[in-house]
Structures are given as C-alpha cells and as structure tokens.
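May I ask you to comment on the folded chain given beneath this request?
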Amino acid sequence: RYDDADAFVAFMTHGQPPRPSNMRTIVAINEGRVPSAEDRPTAPEFAPDEVADRLAAGAIALDVRPWERFEAGHVPESIHVAATSASFEQYVGWIVPEDGPLIVVADSARAALDATRKLAFVGLDLRVIGHVTIEAWQGAGRAVRSTPPVPVEELRDRLDRDVRVLDVRERDEFEAGHIPGARHMNFKHLPGELRALPFETDETLAVVCAGGLRSAIACSVLRRAGYHDARNVDGGMDAWSRAGLPTATP
C-alpha cells in the first residue's frame, strides 16, 4: 500500500497507546540482556521507620491490597493496584513512575511475596526492595489516609453543585454511554497527562470506570499528584446503570 517509508511508519504508528513505563525492561528481558527472576524474587520486610526514610528519599509505596482495605487506610501517597486483579502486573507497569524503587504494602508477608512474584512477569520485581504490612505501619504510629467512595445516588445529587466527574475507561466504553458532564482520560494515560486535566487540585473528583477497579487505581494516582479529594464511584457505571440514572453519549 505504501511506496514511501515515512507514510508507512505514520500508518503503522497511528493510534498507538503510550508505552508502559517499564517497557525498556520488558524488551531487555525478551532480548536476554536482563535476567527474569520468575520464581526467585524476594521482598524482605522493612521496619516502618526505614520505609518512611526510603519513601522520603524517593521510593514508591505500592499498595496491593483490595480497594476496600486501601480506602479504609493507606500509607500516604501510595499507588494502589489490587494484586487480585487478573491484570495486576500489567496495570502496575502502566501506572508506576519509570524510576524509583518500589516498596510493597500488603496485609501479610505472604501477600507481598505473591505480588512480587507476579511483578516478575514484567520485570518489575527488579525494582522491589522490600515490603511492609499495613498493620506494622499503623502499629508504629505512622499516619494513614482514607477517603470514602461516592455512592451513585450521592453523585447524582451533587453533579450540578460541587462534584466533577472523571471517566477513566477505554474510549469506546466512554462513547457507548457515560455520566452527563464527565470528562474522559484513560487511567493508563493519567501519569503522563495529568497537566491536561481540566480540574483544580482542591475540587472533589468522582472517578468512575465500569465496576470500580480501574477508577480505584486512578484515584491513587490522582491523590499522589495532589488531588486530595479524588473519590471512587462505588460500583462504577455498572451501579449507575442499575440505578436507572441517565447517561450521555458524545
């Protein structure tokens, strides 16, 4: 179809999504330049004081617990991806910053190690330096943050007053029907495109996906970026539709 190389390249690369932040590591593993740990990764336990020092020095807290436990109380500025998700390691690869060691936050040492082993499939175990349990963190008197979800009925009542809506699903999902007035940005694009969001950091943001998993991840990214009242829509668009609430299309 193409005699011109530049036209061929433009055709082949049109519409490509952004690269996952750990893409270079994945390629290096595939090429044999970086060994894959697979069943050998480790995540030694850190004392809360050491965790706090390492976070202050640039480490990233990755909370792998279920969303309900994360929203009840988490290490400030944690990034959240539930290890129970079938796409856990892929989502972490999209969301975590490209640089910086990772400290896994889990309910137990076993859960932290299981999550680290999953991360080995995409080479992210190489960045895990240790773990801490939320019980140990709180037991040491360290602060936690929590934000309750937004029920769809509350969101309906506040739509025209003091809540903005961010839909983080895929574009085709958004175009099939979304909450009236919602703005769209795929959750995978958030880390690299936060400046494009038309919101102020002190606004209340209701973040929505289909059922609540992707929006939970997005909420943690937004809070880490300073959107302190980013709240997950409880049950997502599934709950919105079940309640018979109106949707819009572009």
